[in-house]
TrEMBL record:
InterPro entries: Endoribo_LPSP/chorism_mut-like, RutC-like_sf. CDD domains: YjgF_YER057c_UK114_like_1. Residues 5-139 form the Endoribonuclease L-PSP/chorismate mutase-like domain. Pfam families: YjgF_endoribonc. Transmembrane segments: none annotated. This is Endoribonuclease L-PSP. PANTHER family: ENDORIBONUCLEASE L-PSP_CHORISMATE MUTASE-LIKE DOMAIN-CONTAINING PROTEIN (PTHR43760:SF1), ENDORIBONUCLEASE-RELATED (PTHR43760).
Length: 153
């Protein structure tokens, strides 16, 4: 088990198998030492976590969905690294899209669910640049979608 996976286990997190793409794209592309991971959407045992922030979904529920996206991002990175998460050097950037009403302005608080998880799980390697933006709608009505860029060795 990698040192990052040991830390994840301490947090009670087991990385799932990397989710398969839902359309005509690949889940990640490696260019040099950077892995660009396609947008990940939140799913649990009941299916997609859908909702609109500012219309019945709380910031806390949105942040929890963003955390699930972060876990899927790491699962994709692990797959890109041939199953060896210790090849991860750092999280470079996350871009988070929040399904929200026009007057909702707490997108950063929602995407903090992913950012906070990356730092909690990876320490300084989890600190990253970030964007958190509103979206009028997202695929399958999900609350959030997050993509990422990761440096690997």
């Amino acid at each position: 088990m990698s040192s990052f996976e040991t830390r994840l286990a301490e947090l009670g997190v087991t990385l799932p198998d990397a989710p398969a793409p839902a359309a005509n794209y690949v889940p990640y592309v490696q260019v040099g030492d950077l892995v660009h991971v396609s947008g990940q959407v939140p799913m649990n045992e009941d299916g997609f976590i859908a909702g609109t922030l500012g219309d019945g979904m709380s910031v806390e529920d949105g942040a929890a969905a963003a955390r699930i996206c972060a876990i899927s991002l790491l699962a994709q990175v692990k797959a890109a690294c041939g199953g060896d998460l210790d090849r991860l050097v750092r999280v470079v950037k996350l871009v988070g899209f929040v399904n929200s009403t026009p007057d909702f302005g707490d997108q950063p608080k929602v995407i903090n669910g992913a950012s906070d998880f990356m730092v909690e799980a990876l320490g300084d390697a989890g600190r990253h640049a970030r964007s958190a933006v509103s979206a009028a709608s997202l695929p399958f009505g999900v609350a959030v979608e997050i993509e990422g860029i990761f440096q690997v060795k």
